[in-house]
């Protein structure tokens, strides 16, 4: 039995290496000359399902979201610490018809996750998960439909100031500020220019850092006091969009000052949607 397991592991490792080589070659076609990243951590195949939506960190671990799952890894992304394949608890699916996990954000031992009822747009939910176990805490907040008219794709928590930010549209001209205590609405922040398809973000230095799935999968900052938008860099340069998401998909990001000097860490799906990578950028 041991011999069989060892042989299987060798074959699986070879297949995974071949898959990463192939998808990496295809991804290079779409990447082009863009802002350079220092390194990246990639997965392919079934592992992509749990690292396909967003990423956040507490400085010691990375937390990833998939459409239905949450995953916790060490800071190298090599060791899985915890995994919840069915993170949408039955009470969430039964009461709110929650079907999709989007953006996530970490604060004080809690993962804040944006949940949607697919494209019905009737129950935009922020659900709270225990960061140690990735289990649902039983606490969630339903956001007002008059604001979140197209679900809630992402959430960014500013724990130090007791607030969180969300948005609801594919094309953003404004974002919303809520109290972290009960997600009651505080104010609307009007953006200086439109940002298309925000997928996830984090708050630092009075700014929202936002990863998008726009035409070049760009990363932006928004000054939260003024709404001033600044484009930081593109993740791809291939701009063919007759087919939506042709060439992969830009996902969310997180912020963490790593030992190698990188600070912005972005998640993206590869061109064939069978791999995902966490890229590490200096800022």
Please tell me about this protein's structure:
The strands form five sheets. The protein has a four-stranded antiparallel β-sheet, covered by helices on one side. Strands 2-3-4-5 form a four-stranded antiparallel β-sheet, with no helix packed on it. 13% of the residues lie in helices and 44% in strands. The mean pLDDT is 89. The longest helix has 30 residues. The protein starts with a helix and ends with a strand. It has 283 residues and is mainly β. The chain has a single domain, classed as Lipocalin (Beta Barrel). It is globular and about 45 Å long.
Task: Give the structure's gist in a few sentences.
By secondary structure, the chain is mostly beta strands. It has helices at residues 2-31, 90-96; strands spanning 39-44, 54-57, 61-65, 70-74, 80-84, 100-107, 110-116, 125-130, 136-142, 155-158, 163-166, 171-179, 185-196, 198-204, 207-212, 219-223, 229-233, 249-255, 264-269, 275-281. The protein has one domain: Lipocalin (Beta Barrel), CATH 2.40.128.630.
């Amino acid at each position: 039995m041991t011999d069989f397991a060892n042989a299987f592991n060798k074959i699986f490792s070879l297949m995974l290496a071949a898959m990463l080589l192939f998808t990496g070659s295809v991804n290079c076609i779409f990447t082009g000359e863009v802002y350079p990243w220092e390194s990246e951590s990639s997965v392919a195949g079934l592992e992509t399902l749990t690292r396909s939506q967003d990423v956040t960190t507490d400085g010691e671990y990375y937390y990833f979201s998939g459409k239905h799952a949450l995953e916790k890894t060490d800071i190298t992304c090599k060791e899985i610490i915890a995994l919840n394949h069915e993170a949408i608890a039955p009470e969430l699916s039964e009461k709110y018809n929650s079907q999709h996990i989007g953006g996530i954000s970490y604060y004080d031992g809690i993962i804040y996750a944006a949940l949607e009822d697919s494209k019905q747009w009737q129950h935009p939910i922020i659900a709270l998960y225990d960061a140690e176990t990735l289990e649902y805490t039983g606490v969630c907040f339903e956001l007002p439909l008059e604001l979140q008219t197209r679900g809630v794709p992402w959430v960014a928590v500013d724990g130090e100031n007791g607030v969180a930010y969300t948005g609801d549209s594919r094309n953003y001209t404004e974002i919303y500020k809520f109290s972290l205590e009960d997600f009651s609405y505080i104010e609307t922040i009007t953006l200086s220019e439109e940002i298309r398809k925000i997928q996830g973000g984090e708050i630092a230095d009075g700014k929202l850092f936002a990863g998008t799935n726009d035409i070049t999968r760009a990363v932006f900052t928004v000054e939260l006091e003024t709404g001033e938008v600044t484009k930081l860099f593109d993740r791809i340069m291939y701009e063919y969009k007759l087919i939506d998401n042709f060439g992969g998909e830009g996902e969310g990001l997180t912020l963490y000052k790593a030992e190698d000097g990188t600070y912005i860490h972005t998640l993206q799906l590869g061109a064939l949607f069978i791999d995902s990578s966490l890229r590490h950028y200096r800022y």
